[in-house]
UniProtKB/TrEMBL annotation:
Entries under InterPro entries matching the protein: ABC_Transporter_SBP
Protein name: Iron complex transport system substrate-binding protein
GO BP field: cellular response to iron ion
Length: 251
């Protein structure tokens, strides 16, 4: 009888740990929250969700206006925010005693699993997380060279999160510089990559004119070029592993 009572008390304690009025303060946290939380748990997402299309349709959720006054009036029992976002707002909310949880921006694929697992433990303590990351075998010397290009002709180089994704998929990075740098078109013409991956917003913009340059059609066949929304690279989450699967199929 005592063991049944202990089990009941444990279940009640777990249930009480589950937040029911959750708010997010930035776009990436909006999407992660919409993915992992039950709809009934989400009190409001950030106003940025109204302006950007992402991995999940968030149009059915209420949005807050980002003001301290409104957030206090909503009386959330959990506030989720990314590591580098809403500094002043989250500090003031913390000072007022509101439960603010900070998601660390993943720098590795293993850390994406850690981020997802952490958020799920906040939202549903009783629900286990199934890890998705599996280390890839070492790259072969003849693995195809891929140039990842973003808006304004910015190429992704080594020592970046994106480079880890490319190696996980089975590509060598065409750009041998560290971090991010403007593309050298003359160098590309002299020694072209095996693949081109375009990661930029799909909306028309002057920053995307580089992708319309006729040189790409001269250097590469259509099947050697892949276009992807930039949000898939900027907000690591469960969709990161789906992107890896898609690019492996394209490879």
């Amino acid at each position: 009888m005592a063991s049944w009572a202990a089990l009941l008390l444990s279940s009640l304690a777990t249930a009480s740990d589950r937040p029911e009025r959750v708010i997010s303060l930035d776009l990436c946290s909006d999407w992660l929250l919409a993915h992992y939380a039950e709809p009934s748990q989400i009190l409001a997402l950030s106003p940025l969700s109204a302006s950007y299309k992402g991995p999940i349709d968030t149009t059915s959720y209420a949005l807050h206006d980002g003001s301290l006054e409104q957030l206090i009036s909503l009386n959330p029992d959990l506030i989720v925010v990314g590591q580098y976002n809403a500094w002043l707002l989250r500090e003031r909310l913390t000072a007022l005693g509101y439960p603010v949880k900070i998601l660390t921006l993943p720098q590795t694929l293993a850390a994406v699993d850690e981020q997802n697992s952490t958020l799920l433990s906040w939202l549903s303590p009783e629900q286990p997380y199934e890890a998705q990351y599996q280390p890839a075998p070492p790259l072969s010397e003849d693995a195809p060279l891929l140039l990842k290009l973003g808006s304004n002709g910015i190429a992704t180089g080594l020592d970046t999160f994106e480079n880890q994704l490319l190696e996980q998929i089975g590509f060598r990075n065409y750009s041998d510089h560290s971090g991010y740098a403007a593309i050298d078109l003359e160098g590309v013409i002299a020694s072209p990559p095996d693949r081109l991956l375009i990661a930029a917003p799909q909306s028309p913009a002057l920053a995307n004119l580089v992708f319309d340059h006729p040189i790409w059609k001269q250097l590469l066949k259509p099947q050697q070029i892949y276009s992807s929304d930039d949000w898939r690279w900027q907000c690591p989450g469960p969709w990161t592993f789906k992107l890896i699967e898609e690019l492996r199929a394209w490879r």
